[in-house]
Amino acid sequence: MEIKDTLIIAKEFGDTAGARDYDDGDFSGKEFYDNFLLQRFNKAVEGNYLLLIDIDGFWGWPSSFVSGSFGLLSMELGSELVLKHLRFKSDKNPLKIDKAIHVIKNPTKK
């Protein structure tokens, strides 16, 4: 499967991660999920391609943001499907990729 779409979080969403929910402030994981991630992910599934999530330039990567976006996607659609259609890129901090994959494999509610 090939990458046919790239979501550059810092350019499309903002360069700073917030917390989990809208009530927690701006740039929340849920806001990212609702306005960017879910629609782009669904297109990748429908088109049977990979969506690349570029994390570089995005300041912070709190567990609450990752759980409120990628964890929620995993809870709703299943980790197997999510990992089949998502790839992550972070040249500056590969540990962010590990954190995202861990959250996708082990999603938790608040």
The rough form would be described as globular
The CA-CA distance between the termini, in Å, is: 33 Å
**Largest sheet properties:** 3 strands, parallel
Briefly note the structural class of the backbone. alpha/beta
Q: What pattern of helices and strands is seen along the backbone?
A: EHHEHHEH
Are there runs of 5+ residues with pLDDT below 50, and where? none
Number of strands: 3
**Rg estimate, integer Å:** 12 Å
Number of helical segments with 4 or more residues: 5
The helicity comes to 40-55%
Report the mean per-residue pLDDT as an integer: 95
Strand order in space, largest sheet: 1-2-3
Strand-residue proportion = 5-15%
The structural domain count equals 1
Characterization of this structure:
This is DUF4325 domain-containing protein. Helices cover about 50% and strands about 15% of the residues. The chain is α/β, with parallel strands linked by helices. The protein has a three-stranded parallel sheet. The longest helix has 19 residues, at about 30-45. The N and C termini lie far apart (about 35 Å).
Give a brief outline of the structure.
By secondary structure, this protein is an alpha/beta fold. It has one domain.
Task: Summarize the helices and strands and which ones pair or pack.
Blueprint lengths: L2 E6 H4 L16 H19 L2 E5 L8 H15 L1 H7 E4 L5 H11 L5
Parallel strand pairs: 1-2, 2-3
Helix pairs in contact: 2-3, 3-4, 3-5
Protein name: DUF4325 domain-containing protein
